[in-house]
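Structure (tokenized):
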């Protein structure tokens, strides 16, 4: 992808301020008093199991849904009271493309740019986006003729047409092939380096771990964790001791049985609490029980482990 020339916005103020946010759908309390701030220039991850409230939060941020109480401000502009101003500062890449099949890609982007009050002066930027997102060959194609991956690129171009300070990527890589996923990672990292605040929701936790400086985990409408990604990983109390035993018929001593995560053939995985289960003690217990060990690996937690520990659920 070629270079993008976005303005540097980093450091002017908080990008998104969410205060006491509540939302109900009938009797479902979808957001239960959410409070957090996303700083300008951050690459921020918004994670949570299905039904946690992520889409509801993004919809309120984008002015597509109304909160029952509380507020969201984008760079100090309330998303309800100052809708136009806050919307100008926000680009949202939704999961699905809603489009008029009779427009070409370039026409649709120009139309979108017009909604934000831009005229011809913005056309060079639109062409730059088409180039950066490898859409230049499709600029005159009808939207209905595009593949799923190409439509995903159009969604991103559409969200960036007005050069927003904050870009919300809602599951941008769901269902896309590896090549496009990597291109999207590279592109969002580049936007971030150039000063755009990025808010990412994703089902791919390795993606969040690699890209996001801070992460909020939502569960059942509440923030259950919010910290730097490195801190979330460091604070996780467990790590995995992955052993290859010499024999496939090993009996683990009863005292260690609660630590066994899995045992298949010669592969034995134990989950050790950092402070309560010193590795040397565990290895001594195994050796004293006659277990012969061929290979030892200590695996530090991944975000997947943290997520599972905090929410009690997987993230797929
Ligand atoms: P997520 O995006 O984290 O999967 P959502 O924000 O979609 O979660 O949903 C949060 C909660 O609100 C869920 O219990 C969901 O069933 C409910 N919900 C979301 N949208 C609606 C709607 N339009 N009508 C009724 N309930 C809804």
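Design, position by position:
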């Amino acid at each position: 992808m070629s270079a993008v020339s976005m303005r540097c916005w980093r450091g002017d103020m908080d990008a998104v301020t969410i205060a006491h946010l509540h939302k109900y759908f009938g009797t479902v309390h979808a957001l239960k008093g959410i409070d957090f701030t996303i700083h300008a220039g951050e690459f921020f991850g918004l994670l949570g199991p299905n039904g946690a409230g992520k889409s509801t939060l993004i919809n309120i941020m984008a002015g597509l849904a109304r909160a029952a109480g509380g507020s969201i401000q984008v760079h100090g502009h309330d998303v309800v009271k100052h809708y136009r101003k806050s919307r100008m500062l926000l680009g949202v890449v939704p999961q699905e493309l809603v489009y008029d099949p009779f427009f070409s890609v370039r026409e649709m982007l120009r139309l979108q740019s017009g909604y934000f009050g831009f005229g011809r002066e913005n056309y060079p930027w639109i062409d730059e986006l088409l180039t950066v997102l490898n859409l230049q060959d499709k600029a005159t194609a009808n939207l209905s003729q595009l593949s799923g991956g190409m439509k995903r690129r159009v969604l991103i171009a559409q969200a960036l047409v007005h050069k927003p300070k904050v870009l919300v990527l809602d599951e941008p890589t769901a269902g896309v092939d590896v090549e496009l996923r990597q291109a999207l990672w590279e592109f969002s990292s580049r936007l971030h380096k150039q000063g755009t605040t990025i808010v990412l929701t994703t089902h791919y936790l390795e993606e969040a771990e690699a890209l996001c400086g801070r992460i909020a985990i939502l569960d059942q409408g509440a923030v259950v964790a919010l910290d730097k990604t490195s801190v979330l990983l460091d604070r996780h109390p467990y790590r995995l001791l992955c052993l290859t035993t010499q024999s496939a018929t090993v009996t683990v001593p009863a005292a260690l049985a609660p630590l066994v995560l899995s045992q298949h053939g010669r592969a034995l995985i134990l989950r050790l609490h950092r402070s309560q289960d010193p590795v040397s003690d565990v290895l001594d217990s195994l050796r004293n029980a006659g277990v012969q060990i061929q290979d030892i690996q200590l695996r530090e937690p991944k975000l997947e482990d943290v997520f599972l520990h905090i929410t009690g659920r997987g993230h797929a």
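Reviewer-requested clarification: Residues 25, 28, 30, 48, 50-56 surround adenosine-5'-diphosphate (CB under 6 Å). Residues 1-11 have pLDDT under 50 and may be disordered.
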